[in-house]
Structures are given as structure tokens and as C-alpha cells.
Amino acid sequence: MVHQHSDMKLIDFLQNELSLSTMDIAIALRKHQLENGPLAMLLWQYGLVDIEQLERILDWLEDQI
User: Fold this and answer.
1) CB under 8 Å to 54, separation ≥6 — which residues?
2) Which of 8, 21, 28, 63 is deepest in the core (most CB within 10 A)?
3) In 3D, which of 61, 31, 60 has the Cα closest to residue 46?
């Protein structure tokens, strides 16, 4: 389950800007909880986003700081 406002903003970005499915995001969130790795990297590691999408996610995350 997502608790932080920043996580919700990231999920909104993933759905609205990258058109990731709810199922893909749910898979990554489960892995995130189990492995405690960065969500963006887990999305890429499990083939849910490509390298260009990963770069967009990382750029977006950087802009949020």
C-alpha cells in the first residue's frame, strides 16, 4: 500500500504520462515492499518500463526535489 504523498504523485505520473497499467504498478509496488529497492529501478528491472521511460521517471523524480 502506498502511504506517502510523493508516492501517489509518482503513481499518477506513471499512469498518466507513461500509461502504465494498474497491474504493472501493483507488481512493482509489491517488489518494492519485498526488496525495498527504488521503485523506478524495479519497474525497469522487471521489464515494465524501457530505458527511455526510466530516464523520464528519473528526470521527473529529480524535478520533484
Assistant:
1) 40, 41, 43, 44
2) 28
3) 31
